[in-house]
Amino acid sequence: MSEVQFMADLESVILRGAWPGMVGMVALDGCKKCSSILDCRRAVEVSLSAHVQGGRDVRASDMFCDECFDKHILPLVESGEIRASVSRNLGHPLWAPPPDPDTLPLPGILSEEQPKGSVRVTVEVTDGREVMGPEEEDSEPVPYPKEYVTWGGEEFPVPSMGELERWVFDGDCEALDGCIVEGDGHCCHGAPSWLIQLGMI
Ligand SMILES: [Zn+2]
Ligand SMILES: [Zn+2]
Q1: How far does residue 84's CA lie from ligand 1's centre (Å)?
Q2: How far is the C-alpha of 122 from the C-alpha of 88, rounded, in Å?
Q3: Are 134 and 161 in contact (CB under 8 A)?
Q4: Ligand 2 centre and the CA of 45: distance in Å?
Q5: How is the chain split into domains, by residue range?
Q6: Is the CB of residue 61 less than 8 Å from the CB of residue 25?
Q7: Mean pLDDT per segment of 10 residues, for the chain of length 201 residues?
Q8: Of the ligands numbered here, which is closest to the C-alpha atom of 151?
Q9: What is the per-residue pLDDT for 185?
Q10: Which residues surround ligand 1, an ion (CB under 5 A)?
């Protein structure tokens, strides 16, 4: 594992579903640096975890607005300064595993074992701009062979990606005919939920 990970690279639908709630919990506290109110497309979470060999683990995370992150935090992440400053604060020498365990450690120089008293600091960056993607994507229709689904002799338009994501994480879902049902259910008129219709359940 790299010492710095950009979590949004995962492009995971799970992260995308959970992210607005994670930001919502701290939105009013605002950006750690400028205190501006955060929304899920303009928030970046930086999580630090420090493991002191033979000692304690420390974890901390902060949310920043995109502007403060780009201007003040990203340069510290990229230069390694953010990890170095954690090691200074904890008073332990910084350690990282050798980048290529097949050719390293060089005997007597680098060891894959974290030495006692050293600290390994890893950084995770979750960038709301990447996690959520552009706003337009929310209104894109779900990829489906047709724009309409025919049920009971009527045509119903296929939902948008934004709707689908809400249904996946709310638990409640629309049936084809617009009734609210459980994601894996049918309504009292017999229409299946969109999650069933689209083969997601
Ligand atoms: Zn800010
Ligand atoms: Zn119905």
Answers
A1: 23
A2: 14
A3: no
A4: 41
A5: 4-132, 136-197
A6: no
A7: 71 76 88 93 94 90 96 96 95 84 54 84 92 79 85 92 80 92 94 91 78
A8: 2
A9: 94
A10: 31, 33-34, 65, 68
